[in-house]
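Dear support,

I submitted the protein below through the web form. The confirmation email said the job was done, but the results page showed an empty box. After a refresh the structure appeared. I'm attaching both so you can tell me whether what I see now is the final result or a partial one.
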Amino acid sequence: MRTVKLLLCALCMLLTSGCVSIYSNYRDVGELHLIQALGFDSSGEGVRLTIDSGRSGESSSTVMSIGGASVTDAIGRMQMFSVHEDMNYAHAGYAVIGSALAEDDLELCLDFFLRSVQIRMDVGLMVLHGGEAGELITLSAGEGSSASEMLSSIDRVASREGTSHVFTYQETMRALVERGAALMCAIETEDTEGVVFSDSGEKAAVARGYAVVVGTRVESWLLGEDARGVDLLLGLGGGGTTVVTAGALTATVGLRSEGCSIEPVWSTDGHLEAIEVKSRLNCSVPELPGGGAIGPEMAAEIERAVEKKAEHWLRETLALPAKYGADCLGLDGYVRRASPEEFAAVEDNWAGELSGAEMRVSVSAGIDRDYDMRSGSD
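What the results page shows now:
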């Protein structure tokens, strides 16, 4: 624990030093070229860095890409080729890491963020599933769009819909230092052909779930609706809609999480026997093919279908710690608060305790609105 505390203190000191560095090396804003999004990929040289400046007023974004032996080397080479006097990275809000680099070794990127005085530690991190970050950033830029705007939109929509959550570098590094594992927002490239919106680039991306990081590499991916278990469990979102089948009925159901309790169950000899997870969902029915009123029996069928689906999401999520022998979900914090003395006794072997514990999941769902104007209840 002493080592962990020292590392966390170092993180805070570096964050502070970054702010001091920015203002002690003052430049007139007119001389700065503000970089808002970064992309990292593997290359034969070591790493390929791609940057996006975002749009300013009526000016389109600037995109540059270059390789280097390290990130710092790539930044230095990029500055030499830039026509701008001073490229400034203090306003970078998001960083995307290509899948090849993430699945090989994240240490190069993580170490750069830890040591750099140019980058804030609240940068949102995303991992591109099955693609290169540089290609996404380059092809997402259009006359009226930029990679930084796209990534900001992903952040907002993912949190609202419950499909994923964008963790910052500081949150990610803390999880890796304390537990040896973390989750990172996973995104996927979407072709914009056939999507009608003006001045877009050739490519866009959407949140697809999470990359599961163990040590310094992505070990696996939790994608699609299964990833919503993370948001229900940790209270990160839990909104959005899902489609359920109840008998012969298919309904679109809106979800709103009303909370999730996480309680440890201890054996008589002081070991973690189980973790009980109880999730509560409020549901709405914005669409019902075929129309008609939702009576008590139909409502009960829809609720059972939602409960079954949400239980599956949570079980898929809770299987991760046992599968990888690391607490990528941060369950230690919940158990520590609920049972401080019992947790202290098993803390040194927490991963082993968690891997052997039973995961008991229950979900209760209730329809509080059916949007049927004919009923008069809404």
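Response: this is the final, complete result; the empty box was a page-load delay. DSSP finds 13 helices and 14 strands in the chain.
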